[in-house]
Amino acid sequence: MAHILVTGVAGFIGSHTADLMLAAGHRVTGVDNFRTGHRANLENAFAQPGFVFREMDVTAPGALREAVDAARPDAIVHLAALVSVQESIANPELNYELNVRASHLVAEAARQGGVPRVVFASSAAIYGDNPELPLREQADKQPISPYGAAKLASEALLLGHAAAFGLTVRCQRYFNVFGPRQDPASPYSGVISIFERRYRAGQPVTIHGDGRQTRDFISVRDVARANMIAATVPGLASGVANICTGRETTLLSICEEFRRHFPAAPPPIHGAPRTGDIARSVGAPEQATAALGFQAEISIAEGIADLIRGG
Ligand code: UD2
Between 15 and which of 21, 41, 90, 140 could a Cys-Cys bridge form, CB atoms 3.0 to 4.6 Å apart? Predict the structure, then answer.
């Protein structure tokens, strides 16, 4: 069994990743500063004997080094981040601090603390609106936000450390992740989290445009499993991989799926398309299968049922 340090453990993806690792018998040291994470997400983790929590900011001087020295983990899963594309546009400096400098600090803490492996939360945002679908890892990177640029820069920083200092670095390019604990608070939150809240409240959802736009929606439980594999399976080589399903789903079919659970819901309202919106997005999942032995298993129907059940 391994001991994993998870940064951003109180976040949406972090808390599911910790829960899954703990259930599999691994030990987890989780760190979070609760800037966007929530203590409530850790309710299950706190009840597990293999869980240790440190409230800290990964960019505070010496903080990561101290956490690494105390835990002596087998891997760091670095999920702490400024997670909102909109916030990265409003505050590029903070985006640099939390999405670039923090990644460098993780790479350095791993090198200096002798941690052999780092798993990094990258994003499909690095591809921007590259139209060569399905997006393969070698596709041109055309980030259209400071957020996407920072994720790309972080991949380079971490892989540079991997090559120079012999760490194993796995960059996980998440596509549109959805599931329980995703925060629907902002209009720019993940669309499925917004829709779930509105369907549950009996309010109409707003579809920006005709609803034929597509995304590669992946359940957070599949993403947590991809993180656990990347952190714990022995003998992996460094590299990047899309964490996606390879399935293209329209917003209209997401609405249909919700209607099966909420048949009395009012019909969606169509608004103007969102500025800068991408018409289609889907990833090629083969590289994750080849490098990690990972394949998404949860269908949209199962994932939405899971979200509505909560947990
Ligand atoms: C954005 C971010 C991505 C991530 C994601 C949240 C970029 C380049 N990417 O991607 O990094 O933060 O959001 O999961 O900005 N929509 C509606 N009604 C709503 C909300 C959304 O129709 O109430 C549409 C939206 O216009 C888009 C689609 O749903 O066409 C998906 O929106 P999203 O914000 O969930 O995801 P995405 O891929 O635009």
Answer: 41
